[in-house]
Prior knowledge:
Elements: H1 2-40, H2 45-53, H3 60-82, H4 91-107, H5 112-124, H6 128-156, H7 161-164, H8 168-191, H9 193-206, H10 209-224, H11 232-259, H12 268-283, H13 292-304, H14 309-337, H15 342-348
Helix pairs in contact: 1-13, 2-14, 3-4, 3-11, 3-14, 4-5, 4-14, 5-6, 5-15, 6-8, 6-10, 6-11, 6-12, 8-9, 9-10, 11-12, 12-13, 13-14
Amino acid sequence: MTEPHQASAAAPPARSGKLKFVIRYGLSAVITVGFLYLAFRGTNFHKLYETMLQVNYWWMLPNFACLMLSHLLRAWRWRYMLEPVKPNISIRNLFSGVMVGYMMNNILPRAGELVRPYTIGKLEGVPKTAALGTIVIERIIDTVSFLVLIACIPLVYHGPLRESFPWLVDTGIVALAAALGFLALFIVLTMRRDMADWVVRRLERILPKRVAERLDGWVHAFLDGFLFLSRPGRFVIITVLSILIWALYVLMMYLAFFAFDFHGALGLGAALVVQAISSIGVALPTPGGTGTYHAFTSQTLSRLYFVDPTLALSFATITHAVGFVGVTIVGLYYFLRDHIQVGEAVGGGRNSGK
């Protein structure tokens, strides 16, 4: 009689998990469809097809090469972040984690943030919770890097920015304040573990016993992912790698201009502007930026640089497809090569462990 009772007790959490899954990815689907509609409404699809036939696709090869190089630099940067947890991690395995994570993001938005710690844990024995801590700090660094691009826009663009995107500056200020606030909080908790212990003890009083028993281990393993912040030399290297990653993103956009013969009218400054604003779309919870990237990129080109709307949408569609398909193929290769199971990958990041 015990086993049926235990199964019944486990059912409500399972149903709750399924409900959260449906809500989370249902909302993502709504956002994706909504932005695809905004991007493609009123489009003459025959004209869109004709513009795609005129593209010089050879330029998309160096464009994709820049994307792969940026991901390799991400793997290298991740190595420095994880060094206090485990030194000399294989770049190959880190690159596998990065690519499998991005592939999963193309399928289930934000699933990659859970899959990456699971993958590097499987390949290198790195505690998953510590690896998750580095993913959080990586997202903060990327947010700050993106906001630096936003701050550089007035240096390279002097047109109707506020009229076209009136919310851009205010959004940037809020995001910067939030990112720096979280960064400061994690630095303090990493340096002052006694403060983290104080918070944990109070949370343990109100949390279920099963969770409370594991909370201390989870918190400290998570904060271990921030230990590199206490090493200024490593942080300088991480900053340089972050600059190079985002410089490659801008270069990717600039190379794509050649494919569409934009390079005569649009230079590196325009590539910076388009990359900065399109990154907002990629940050929204959609599969690989689908819909959101199309809308933000095409609107930036047509509103700020007066590119024909159909041509701008063609640019957004092709550049997104090259990255989306290419990353999915490379990620799938590592996914299969390293024997990552779908169920384990999606659920792996929820494991506290090791």
